[in-house]
Every structure is written in structure tokens, then in C-alpha cells.
Amino acid sequence: MRTVFEYTKGMRDTEMTYCPGCTHGIAHRLIMEVLGEKNVLGSTIGVSPVGCSIVAHRFMNVDMLESPHGRAPAVASGIKRVHPDNFVFTYQGDGDLASIGTAEIVHAAHRGEKFCTFFVNNAIYGMTGGQMAPTTLIGQKSTTCVDGRTKEQAGMPVKMSELIATIDGAVFVERVALNSPGNVRKAKKAIEKAFDVQEKKLGFAFVELLSSCPTNWGLPPVDALGWIKENLIPYYPVKQFRCPQEVSL
Questions:
Q1: I need a surface site. Which of 78, 80, 211, 231 has the fewest CB within 10 A?
Q2: What percent of the chain has pLDDT over 70?
Q3: 147 vs 249 pLDDT, higher one
Q4: Is residue 18 in a domain?
Q5: What CATH number does the domain containing 86 carry?
Q6: How many domains does the chain have?
Q7: What is the pTM of this model?
């Protein structure tokens, strides 16, 4: 008999409470798989702020801390400096990282803090009711722009990977998507490289994961995966922006 699937030790054996079709669970598993394969689950500390990610500690089988909204990079900076040999990561949504926490993430990257940030971008505020986020697309409807976002009223959606990639301290920056098996495999490779950067103490690593939010998009789960391909990826191209030679293979 051949084993075709094993429940990773990095995930707690408990029922997921995310909405049906939400890809937070996929992101959780990929991060925990990589840490498990590196055999560092016992020496990893994660930080999650306010947002859907606030419940990540229920599912990720590592030490976890919760931070105020947007402040996960500051908390992670302190943890990594006190425990430089531990693996440290933040797990943040777009309403958190790209809005109230913009200064935090930019300055953490500028300082070259040696932790990883996993940025889950579903282009909308999830936990708090589906409001427009800085990443909401032009024309996309939300509870605070019922006719769709306009450039005149809210400006263009913020491209965080492109912004972070301009900062010297951010040595690894990649955007991936969680909408298909192939893209999920590529996402895991990006997460592996981010942790390799941290292991080698090269600087700050940033991985953006394009994710679905069927509930607040008003779509069935399968259609939401298609919406990522048809709408998110054209505006937020899936690509690697920066990668040091030490982990480029």
C-alpha cells in the first residue's frame, strides 16, 4: 500500500473555521509543510494580527502570538532580535498589511529584518464585513463602494510586492496565487525560498499570496478561484521580483 496523503504535523488536528472556499487553509498548510520538512516546527514563532488571520493560532502547530492591527512586523522584529536563531514569520491580510500596517511593513523591510512575511491578498476586508481595501480592484464592489471602486474616489489599488521590491533590505519578494494545483505548488516553492533566506540570515523575505474570499465577493467557491485568474492575476502579476543568488535555484 502506498501513502498518497499525510496530515502535516504542522497543522493542528482541528476543524477549519474559515468560510467554505477560502484559501487561507491552503496557505496555512503550505507554510506548515515547509517548516515541518525543515524540522523547525519546535523553534518557530508566528505572529498574526487582527483580521481573518487572527485565528491562525488555532490551526498552525507552532508558537503563535497575536498583535494589534497592522503591528505584526513590529512584534516580529522584536521577537527575531531577541531570538535570532528561531524561525519567525508574520501572516497578514491585505486590509491589515496594506492599510493600517503599511508603515510597519515598509520600515521592517527597510531595516532588513530577518523574518518572513506572508501576505494574503484577497482584495477586500474579510473579517470585518467586506469593506473596500487598498488592494480592491477598480470596478470591484464592496460594502463601502457598492457601485465599484473608482480611481477618482480611491486611487489605484496598491501593489505591495512591487512597492516592497524597491527596498534594498527586502532581498526576496515573490507573488504567487492559490487558485490551481500548479500555482499552489509554485507557492510552496516561494515559501521554501523565503525561509531559506531567513535561515541564511540574508534579510527580509516577502511572499504575497493571491487568495479567494467567496463570501465577501458574493461568489461560489469554484467561481471565486476563476475570479482570481480572470481579475486578480492580470492586475497583480504572479512573478518573482527579487531573489538572492544563494537561494535562486
A1: 78
A2: 99
A3: 147
A4: no
A5: 3.40.50.970
A6: 1
A7: 0.96
